[in-house]
C-alpha cells in the first residue's frame, strides 16, 4: 500500500537536512581551527567538542557505547567516556565499561558530577601518555551524569589532513544534495496546488466530472479527496434535481391530461343535451349516464391527488394503533367480492396465523391491500384467481397479492409506482383507473417503515406478484 507523506514530515526532513548541513559546516570550521591550535588551546577545543557531542549522543547505554566506539573507530587520538552519577563508567570509546575502575576520585569527574565543568592533565595508566581530560555535567541527560573527553597533549589536531579533505568533499556533496532535495520538495508541494487550481477552474466552467488524482502530501491528498466527494455530491444533486424537475413536468402534464379527458367528455355531452338532445329521453339518459361516470372519475382523481398530497405533507407522521393485518386483509377481500363475482373471479385469502399485529393506521393499510386486489380484479381475465396471503417471519409481516393476469413486463417494474404511470394506458382508463393507486400504496407502505415491490410470480407463470413487508 502506498504511504503518503504529511506536510509536517516533509518540513521535518527539509529542516533536518538544513540542520545537518549547518552542523557539518560548524564541525568543518572547528576542524580548521583545531588544525592551527597549539597545545595550550587543547582544553578549549575539548570543551567545544564536548558541548557539540552532547547534542548527538544516544540516550541509552548500549547505543551510546556503540556510537562513541564507532565515532572514534577511524581516529583513536581521542577518547570519550560517559560516567554515571556514582562514578561508574557507562560507556567508553576504548574499553569495556564493566572492566573500568570507578572514576569518582578523578578531579574533573568529581567536579562534573557536582555540576561544574573541569579539566585535568595526568598520565594514562594504559599507554603512559600525558592526556588532557575535560569533563562536563549532563544536566539535561536522564541517564548519564558526566561526559569526559581526553586526548594526548602531543596531538595538536583531532583529525588528519586526509580525513579533513574527505570531510570537505562530503560537505560540498551534502550542500549539493540539499539543493536537489529542496528542489524536489518544492516541486512535490507546488504540483498538487496547481492541480487544485486547475480543478477550481474546471468547476467554474461547470465541469464537475473533473477529478483530482493526488496521493501526497497526505493533507493535500485528503483535501483533493474531499473535492472529489464534493463534486460527486454536486453531480448527484444536479441529476436528482433534473429527475425531480422531469417528474414535476410529467406530473403537470399527466394531471392536465387526466383532468382534461373527463372534462372534455362532460362538456361535449352537456353541449349535445343543450342542443335539443334533452328532448330525446333515451339519448339524454344515456348521455347523463356518461356524464355521471366521468364526474365519478374526476372525483376519484381529485380524491387520489388529495390523498397523495396528504401523505407527502404528513410523511412519517401517523396516527397508529395496534392493528391486526389479518382482519384488515379479510375486510379488503370481502369489499371486493362483489366486483370479482361479476367477472367470475375468485379471491383466495390465506394466512399463516389467525392474528398478525403491527403498529399502523388501519384505514391506510386497508387502502393499500384494496388497491392491489382491485387492480388484479380489474385487469385479470374472467374466471381468474386472485391470491392474497399473509405470513410472519424474522420480525416482519409479509403481504402477497398475486394473480394470473397479463403481469407486468420487467422494463416497467421500476416505474409502475410513479404517479399516473400506466403500462397500458388505454386499458387502464377503460377500467376507470386514475393511475395513482400504486403510488399511493408505496407512500403508505414507506411511512409505515416497510417496502413494496413487484417481483413476478415465483413459479414463472403469467401474472403479477406484489410483496409488502412491514415491521411487526
Automatic annotation (TrEMBL):
Subcellular compartments: Cell membrane
Biological source species: Treponema succinifaciens (strain ATCC 33096 / DSM 2489 / 6091)
Keyword match Transferase: yes
Protein EC: 2.7.13.3
Position of the signal peptide: none
One Gene Ontology MF term: ATP binding
PANTHER family: SENSOR HISTIDINE KINASE CPXA
Domain spans labelled Histidine kinase: 254-472
GO-annotated cellular components: plasma membrane
Protein's UniProt keywords contain Phosphoprotein: yes
TM annotation in the entry: 12-34, 166-186
Pfam (any one): HATPase_c
Major localization listed first in the record, in broad terms: membrane
Membrane topology recorded in Swiss-Prot or TrEMBL: Multi-pass membrane protein
Enzyme class: transferase
CDD domains: HAMP (cd06225), HATPase (cd00075), HisKA (cd00082)
Catalytic reaction list: ATP + protein L-histidine = ADP + protein N-phospho-L-histidine
Record-annotated HAMP domain positions: 187-239
Protein name, UniProt field: histidine kinase
InterPro entries: HAMP_dom, HATPase_C_sf, HATPase_dom, His_kinase_dom, HisK_dim/P_dom, HisK_dim/P_sf, HssS/ArlS-like, Sig_transdc_His_kin-like_C
Coiled-coil spans in chain: none
